[in-house]
Specification:
It contains 14 helices and two strands. It is mainly α.
Length: 291
C-alpha cells in the first residue's frame, strides 16, 4: 500500500541495488538507523498533519496535490523520495531529487498570509520558507516517532547526541531540495520550529485536510490500523500544534496500541526493509569489486 506497487517492491526500490557508492549516508549513519525503522510509518502521518499548518504549504497542497483523489498515490510518492534519499546511491538520489524538483516547478500560486494587510502573496514550492517548513516537520516527525517507539540513535562522538547527529546528517536531504541553511542540530531544529510559529494558522482548508488525513477513503481492511497510526501520530505532536490542528490526544492507550501495531507490521514486513536490503546489496558489490 505504501510503496505504490501491488507486489510491495516497485522498480525504484529494486534500482537501489544499482550505483557505485554508498549514497549520502551509509549503513553506519543515524539516518539509516532512524529512517529504516518501522516507526517511520507513524512519522509520515505526523509530518503530513503538521505540514497543513503553513498557509503557503497548505495552498500548494490544496491547489496542486492529488491527495483527495489519490491519497495513497501521494503518500507513496513521499515514501519514494524519503526512502531513495536515505538508501539510494548518490546518482539515484540525484535522479529522484530531479523528479521532485520537476513536480515542484508546477506548484505555484497565491495565498493570503495570516495577520497581514496584504490581500495575497505569491508562493512557489521552491520558496525557502516552504522548503524549510516541510524539512523541519519531517525531521521532527522522524525523531519524535523514533523517540517513542524506536531504539536509541548511536552518537558519532561524545560531543554529539544521537539526535543531533541525525539532524546534522538529514540536513543533506534538505540541501538536495534546495535549502540553503537546514538545521544541523536539535537546538537549530527547535529554533526553526519556533520561528515558524508566527506564520502558522488553522483555517477551513486546514480543517478540511485534517478531516481527510484522519479519515481517508482507504480499503476496509486498513481503516483500523490507519486509525491507530493516526492516534500514535497525534500523541507525539506537541500540545501547542495539536490544539492548532484541532486534534485531541486519544483517551485510549494509543502509545501501546501503536507499539503493538508496529510490532505486527514488523513481523509481516520483516525487520529489515527491502530498500535497506537492496542498498546493502549495492554496497557489498562495491566492496567486493577488485581494486
Amino acid at each position: 500500500m505504501l510503496s505504490g506497487d501491488p507486489h510491495g517492491e516497485p522498480d525504484w526500490v529494486k534500482a537501489m541495488s544499482e550505483g557505485e557508492d554508498q549514497g549520502l549516508f551509509g549503513p553506519d549513519s543515524a539516518v539509516w538507523h532512524v529512517n529504516g525503522g518501522i516507526p517511520v510509518i507513524v512519522a509520515g502521518v505526523r509530518a503530513l498533519l503538521m505540514q497543513t499548518l503553513h498557509p503557503g504549504a497548505m495552498a500548494g497542497v490544496h491547489d496542486h496535490s492529488r491527495y483527495a483523489s489519490d491519497p495513497l498515490g501521494r503518500l507513496s510518492g513521499t515514501v519514494r523520495w524519503v526512502v531513495t534519499t536515505t538508501f539510494g546511491s548518490t546518482t539515484g538520489v540525484g535522479t529522484e531529487s530531479s523528479r521532485v524538483h520537476r513536480l515542484h516547478d508546477r506548484v505555484s500560486g497565491q495565498y493570503t498570509p495570516e495577520n497581514s494587510t496584504e490581500t495575497s502573496r505569491p508562493y512557489s514550492a521552491h520558496d525557502e520558507d516552504l522548503l524549510t517548513w516541510v524539512h523541519i516537520v519531517f525531521t521532527d516527525a522522524f525523531l519524535a516517532a523514533h523517540r517513542q517507539w524506536g531504539n536509541g540513535i548511536p552518537p558519532s562522538s561524545a560531543d554529539e547526541t544521537g539526535e543531533d547527529r541525525y539532524v546534522r546528517e538529514w540536513a543533506l536531504a534538505g540541501r538536495q531540495m534546495g535549502m540553503t541553511s537546514p538545521p544541523t542540530s536539535m537546538a537549530e531544529l527547535r529554533d526553526a520550529l519556533h520561528s515558524s510559529k508566527k506564520v502558522l494558522r488553522a483555517d477551513n482548508r486546514v480543517r478540511e485536510a485534517i478531516s481527510f488525513l484522519t479519515n481517508p477513503p482507504l480499503p476496509a481492511s486498513t481503516k483500523i490500523p490507519y486509525k491507530i497510526l493516526v492516534a500514535g501520530a497525534v500523541v507525539t505532536i506537541d500540545p501547542y500544534y495539536r490544539k492548532l490542528l484541532g486534534l485531541r490526544r486519544p483517551w485510549w492507550p494509543a502509545v501501546t496500541a501503536t507499539r503493538v501495531l508496529l510490532f505486527l507490521i514488523g513481523v509481516v514486513l520483516g525487520r529489515e526493509s527491502t530498500s535497506r536490503a537492496r542498498a546493502l546489496e549495492r554496497i557489498e558489490r562495491i566492496n567486493a569489486a577488485p581494486r
